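Worked example 3. Consider a protein that binds 4'-deoxy-4'-aminopyridoxal-5'-phosphate.
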Amino acid sequence: MSSNLNRRESVQEFDAKLSLADFVVGDSDDPLTPPLAFTQWRQAGAWEASIYEPEMLATADARTIINYEGRPRSVINLCSYNYLGLANHPEVISAARDALAKYGLGACGSPLLSGMTDLHRQLERRVAGFLRREDAMLFNSGFGGALGTISGLLRKTDVAILDTRSHLSLRDGAVLSRSRVDRFEHNDLASLDAALHRRKGRRQLVIVEGIYSMDGDFANLKGLLDMAESHRASVFIDEAHSMLGCGTHGRGAAEHFGVETRIPLVYGTFSKAFAAVGGFVTGAVETLDYLRFYAHSYGYSCALPPVIVAAVLKALDIAEREPQLRVRLWDNARYFREQLNSIGIDTGTSTTYIMPLVIGDRARMYQLGHELRRRGVWVAPVDYPAVPEDRICFRACVTANHTRADLDEALNIIADTLAPALLQNA
Ligand code: PMP
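Given these inputs, the predicted complex is written out as structure tokens:
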């Protein structure tokens, strides 16, 4: 898609009443041909959609450069999951460079057959030790890790009970397992209780996130664990966004809430605070020994490149050695959210470094998204079905590397751009 589209160049008016949920019926006689209405809708909304897949021209730092409408644009980056600022850390880069020189680029095989290196083993032991577990296994993506772990453990007669706001990797894993898939209202204990009652007598797995990736709120872990345990159900927590960012030592939401000993299996990703790519699961040797053979995304997919493994090892060293990074992250998050709220921006239920800036209207969100980019603030557009239609929003993530000056400048631009537009429609 051309990145220098102009609003006026749109062929037809973009129909902002439609969403991705309207094009899931296959109406052509060939599955390789998408619905015509979808293609037309995309073409008419080309200007709106040009906000997606922006090209970064530099590192995912607090300030970066993106290609906006065909030109390099400096932006304050409130998009990247680089929570501790490690993506461009000199020690991380140097560890990666050393590994590249020694091991070359790719692992060139599945970890089961030929892709495992001594570095991969070292990272398995390091992650297991850090999270005080017996063993760990690595996946080449966080999505694949969640998908493989859940589909590898659940069976047809089991029940997966997911929070309604759970990430698609978790839901897809449950669907792939062919188990029964139920949902409960976000963080709602009565709704979970009812779901657990409905399938009494079956093996049940309650699936939640440490920090929810769109809303930026925590799972109510203590209450959820109490409820699940009272039904003898197990709990699976996706610590993608909470790992390294939460807890005194960075061991995630489970450490934050003091419930680590009640969680048998810990899943997380290397794509957020670790600032690399990949996923992991850690827990009992027997469970992981089983998973190595039944998580298809593990055994049937190439191992992580050694260069990434080396970078992740170094990122973990730094995150352990420098707890002040977490302090800065949380100070920044608190400051930014309070300031947003003080200028009238609705940040929903966020209590963390992820915060929605609720707009609640599709057409207005795209208009304002372009305006923010033009003025130098980079936030992510979040449309339905990733969030409910009345919660269409921008998502902002702050990091330890943002300075007060970065945040203040972004706040000024947001106040100028969003606050008047939202007031008009209040
Ligand atoms: N779980 C959650 C909660 C996520 O937000 C994401 C991705 N943003 C994933 C899993 C998948 O992780 P990855 O991007 O590392 O594949």
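Take a moment to read the result before moving on. The first strand starts at residue 55 and ends at 56. Residues 1-11 have pLDDT under 50 and may be disordered.
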